[in-house]
Design goal:
Layout (H helix, E strand, L loop, with lengths): L4 E3 L6 E3 L15 H18 L8 H14 L22 H14 L2 H23 L5 H15 L8 H20 L9 H8 L6 H24 L14 H12 L9 H10 L18 H19 L5 H16 L4 H12 L17 H22 L3 H9 L4 H10 L5 E2 L5 H7 L11 H16 L9 H5 L2 E5 L3 H7 L4 E6 L3 E6 L6
Parallel strand pairs: 3-4
Antiparallel strand pairs: 1-2, 4-6, 5-6
Helix pairs in contact: 1-4, 1-5, 1-14, 2-3, 2-17, 3-4, 4-5, 4-6, 5-11, 5-13, 6-7, 6-8, 6-13, 7-9, 8-9, 8-12, 11-12, 11-13, 12-13
Length: about 525
């Protein structure tokens, strides 16, 4: 074993003995090597983020932002789908939509790439900070952060959930500081974070869940310690009162939105919607076909192993790991939450004998250098891939029905329109005069309609009687789908256009009354 190092029974990371002080000349490493490694770490999300725009939901976010600016208010009924004026709909991410639209107006599709890249680097920095604050030695902190970032890269797209990744990390950092008694006055800025969070993404409830869990765990630890004093960790933080105060203040802060407490109706809708999740990939479970999925399992396993080896347990850590595992193994889109919880457990302090400062503190100057390096890497990757706005638009045309839309616009066809789930958002953006039959706002359309549409496009039993198809005057169909081939032979429709991506069918006879 290396001199001055030992492994505890509670943690898989190496711990310094009392004979060595972090920050002393003998333990402090040269800053050059850590800076190079950190630069490589921050390059990971950049390389994964600087790419073409492909997410199907970003388009209806853009259109919503445009609508809010044009109308000077937020929608209370759906303005984008058929029969939408009769459907209650809250644009719960309206602030994100407006900002993204303004960026797009200023610099085009590059604005979406810019948002994705900056948000991904910010998430990496927040995760790095959370871990480095609790793991004094540079190499273990670096490796743990790198493992976590690698698992997050597949989820780093142009979605609002990137902001949830960031705000959840900041919230967990505050909770851990309060539990350790090392909080600063800046913890009182957390309700401000929740004001922004509640206006950009509905998963602000995950942050509230973290705060509530910390409050409940403090009570449970105190009660359980009376019966299991040798196994349960007693609450030790003197400022325990700050947790419930912050929880109440943050909950109240979420009501600072255009919809008030009705915003929680959207939370209820998503929580009770289950059937559509079976056909939407991001809501499905991990399939363990890719390396990063196995890395998620490894981090979870190490975190569970770490908890099992501890002499004293905290109900917060146990419930946090169990709760996030339940979410992640049900829905792959929540994998980030499990990874964050696992990293927090693995980054527990390495023993009371550690004193002094970290080997490689993340100062403002070093952070500025790392963000600068990330910017340079982004520029190099963009130049290497030739990602101009024209090239980005050309890439969009290989995924979405750009030519088909131009044909429909030139012909002056009128709706109703029948479209696939994945293309609904883009049609909302590009064909605002023709309300879509379906798009990615699952809470608006409901399980029944989403499942019926999926069955229709798959050519399932009763596809020809789908009421949206029966009422449609125009069908924009993706090439190669079962319904597309069926419509070629359907006497109700005539093929008017075909390209490498999509086909346009127009009704021959008026739809049945």
């Amino acid at each position: 074993m290396l001199p001055g190092l030992r492994f505890t029974g509670e943690n898989w990371l190496p711990e310094l003995t009392n004979t060595e002080t972090i920050g002393s000349p003998s333990s402090r490493t040269s800053s050059l090597v850590p800076m190079i490694l950190c630069a490589a770490l921050y390059a990971i999300p950049v390389i994964g983020s600087v790419r073409a725009v492909a997410d199907p939901d970003v388009w209806w976010h853009l259109r919503t932002g445009q609508w809010v600016i044009e109308q000077g208010t937020v929608p209370h009924h759906d303005p984008f789908s058929q029969g939408g004026t009769e459907k209650t709909w809250m644009a719960y991410s309206w602030l994100f939509d407006v900002v993204l639209y303004l960026i797009h107006q200023a610099i085009g599709l590059w604005g979406i790439v810019l948002y994705r890249t900056v948000a991904s680097v910010a998430v990496t920095a927040a995760v790095h900070r959370l871990i480095a604050k609790r793991v004094p030695r540079f190499l273990p902190a670096f490796l743990l952060t790198a493992a976590m970032v690698v698992t997050l890269v597949p989820l780093m797209n142009e979605r609002t959930w990137l902001l949830t990744f960031l705000f959840s990390t900041l919230t967990l950092d505050v909770v851990l500081d309060l539990r350790a008694g090392t909080e600063r006055k800046t913890v009182w800025l957390l309700p401000v974070v929740f004001v922004v969070w509640a206006n950009v993404h509905i998963q602000f409830v995950y942050g509230l869940a973290l705060l509530c869990l910390a409050c409940v765990a403090a009570i449970l630890d105190g009660l359980l310690a009376l019966s299991f004093s040798k196994r349960i960790e007693r609450p030790r933080f003197a400022s325990w009162w700050k947790l419930p105060v912050l929880t109440i203040a943050s909950t109240a802060a979420t009501l600072v939105n255009p919809y008030g407490y009705h915003l929680y109706d959207v939370v209820r809708d998503y929580a009770t919607q289950t059937q559509a999740y079976r056909i939407i990939l991001e809501f499905g479970p991990l399939e363990f076909r890719e390396t990063w999925e196995w890395l998620v399992l490894a981090l979870f396993g190490l975190a569970a192993f770490t908890l099992g080896r501890r002499a004293r347990l905290s109900t917060f850590d146990v419930l946090l790991l169990a709760g996030t595992a339940f979410l992640a193994f049900h829905h792959r889109r929540d994998v980030w939450f499990l990874v964050l919880a696992s990293a927090a457990i693995l980054a527990t302090p390495l023993g009371k004998g550690v004193v002094g400062v970290a080997e490689f503190p993340l100062t403002w100057r070093r952070n500025a250098i790392l963000f600068g390096v990330a910017g340079i890497v982004a520029a190099v990757v963009a130049l290497q891939q030739g990602l101009t706005n024209q090239r980005l638009q050309a890439s969009v045309a290989t995924t979405y029905p750009v030519e088909a839309i131009q044909v429909v616009e030139a012909r002056g066809d009128k709706g109703p329109i029948f479209n696939h789930f994945n293309w609904g958002g883009y049609l909302i953006w590009r064909l605002p005069r023709m309300p879509v039959s379906l798009d990615g706002r699952t809470n608006l359309h409901g399980d029944e309609k989403i499942l019926r549409c999926s069955n229709t496009w798959a050519g399932g039993i009763g596809w020809e009687d789908d009421p949206d198809l029966v009422a449609a005057n125009v069908v924009i169909a993706e090439k190669g789908m079962v319904l597309t081939n069926l419509l070629r032979k359907d006497p109700r429709f005539q093929l008017e256009h075909e390209d490498a991506v999509a086909l346009v069918f127009v009704r021959r006879t008026p739809p049945a009354p």
